[in-house]
Amino acid sequence: MSEKIMGDHFYTISEPERDSALARSGYRFEGIACYVAASPTQGSIPLFRLFNHDNGDHFYTTSAPERNRAVASAGYQNEGVACYVRGSSGNQAVPFYRLYNGDSGDHFYTTSKTEADSAAANDDYQAEGVACYVFTSNAAGLVPLYRLYKPGHDFWDDIADALSDAVDGVVGAFTTVFGPVITTAEGLIGGALNALGGILRGSICEIPYLGPSVCTAWDGVLTAGWAVMSLPDVLGGLIGVHPEKRMTLCVIIQLDEEGSTVADYKYALEAIQYAIDVFKNKANVRILSVGPFVYSSPFSDPPAASRDYISIESTPSGPETLDVGCGASDLLSQIETTPGQVFTAKMIRECFWGNARSVVGYGAPVVTFAVRDFKDGRHTGCSAGPLNDYVTVVLRNTTKLRTLPHELGHACNLWHYDDIDNLMTPGEGGGVGVDLSNVQVALLRASRHVTYF
C-alpha cells in the first residue's frame, strides 16, 4: 500500500486571500477555526505567519525567536503577522493547539482537544502544545480566522496525474496547431456568418410569446446533441483525463434610467478573473472573450480579465431587465415574455461575434447581464440553466466572487449541490468553496458552451 502524503493547513483572516487560495491553489474550505483580532488590542500579541516553498507548509507562531530560527535554518519565509491573539487564557480565550506531521512537514492548529488527540492518534501528528489562545465565538473587535486544507498526493495519484498530463499534452498539441487555423478562418468569414446568425435569432426569438419558446426548445436540442457528442470526453474525464477545452464569455453591463452603469467596473474585472481561475483550475476550461481572432493555446498562461470581456451599453435599459426575478415563475416569465426578448436583442447586438455559434450551439458564448438588483432582495445571481444562453448577476463588491462562476456552472449543465466546499452550493445555503466533483467536471465539459475549438 502506498503512503499517503499529507497536505497543508492554511489559516487567514482575509476573505480575498481565502477565495484566491480556493480558486487557484487547490485548497478546500474547512470553516472558521476561531475568532481573533485583525489589529493590535490591549493584551494581544502577534501570531506570525511563515511559509516553506519546499514542502508547501504554512507555519504560525507567536515566538519571534522561533520565527527567526525557522527563517534562518528551516527554509521558511516570513509572511508577516497573520492576526493578533492572546498569550494566556482568560476572558473566555481557549487554547489553540499546535500539531506537526514530520512526514509531510504540515503544521495543524485547532481549538478542539478531541480533534487534536485524534490527529495525534490516527494521522501521525505530534502534539506541540498550545500555540496561543483564541476565541470560539465572535465578539466586538474580533474577526474569523478561516481554515483551509490542501489535500496531498500518494503514489497512485502521481501516476494518474502523469497519465493525464501525457494525454492532455497530446490533445493540447493538436489544438495548438489547428486552433489558430479555425480561429483565423472564423475571423475572416465571421462577420457575415454572425450577421446571418443574428438575423436568424432575432427573427425567431423575438416573436412575441412563440419565439422565446421555440428558441428555448432549440437550445434544449443543442444541449442534448452536443452532450452526446461529448461522451468520449466525459468518459475520459471520469478517470481524470481533462485536456484543455475553452468557452467564451460576454459580460454586458447595463445602464440605469439615468444613464449610469449598474455595475462596478473594477469588481466586474475581479469577478471575471475569478471565474477564469476557477474554471481553469477546477475543470481545465479556458474562458476567453468573444470576438474575432482570439487565439489561445493550452500551453499558455490563463488569460487576464480585460475590457475585451465587457460590453457597456450605450443607451439606458428599462426596469424589466434592470430588476429581475429568480423564482421559477419569474425565470419562465423572463424568458417567455418581454424581458426575454429584450435580453435576446441585447445579446445579438452586444455579443455580435457569438451569434453564429449560438445558432449551431457549438461553442455558444455564455452571456452575463449585470443587473441592478433582484426583486426578492435575496439573490445576487441567477440562471435558467443550460436551456438559456445568459445568466444575470449583480456585479458590485457586495456580491461574493464565487457568484459568477456559480451561475456559469448552471449554464454549463450543473445543478445545486449540498457541500460547503462545492462551487454549486449556493451562498445562502452555506457554500464557500469552489470544488467540483469528477461527475460535475464531466458534465460541465460536456456543455455546448465548452469546446475544443
CATH topology of the largest domain: Collagenase (Catalytic Domain)
CATH architecture of the largest domain: 3-Layer(aba) Sandwich
Q: For the record, what is the CATH homologous superfamily label of the largest domain?
A: Collagenase (Catalytic Domain)
**How many domains, as an integer?**
2
Order of helices and strands: EHEEEHEEEHEEHHHEHEEHEHHHEEEEHH
Name the shape in a single word: globular
Mean pLDDT: 90
- Count of helical regions: 13
What low-confidence regions span 5 or more consecutive residues with pLDDT below 50? none
What is the top-level CATH class of the largest domain? Alpha Beta
Largest sheet: 6 strands, mixed
Per DSSP, what share of the residues sits in E-state strands of 2 or more residues? 15-25%
As a percent range, the share of helical residues equals 25-40%
Going by helix content, strand content and strand pairing, the class is: alpha/beta
The count of DSSP E runs of length 2 or more, i.e. the number of strands, is 17
- Rounded to the nearest angstrom, the distance between the terminal CA atoms is 41 Å
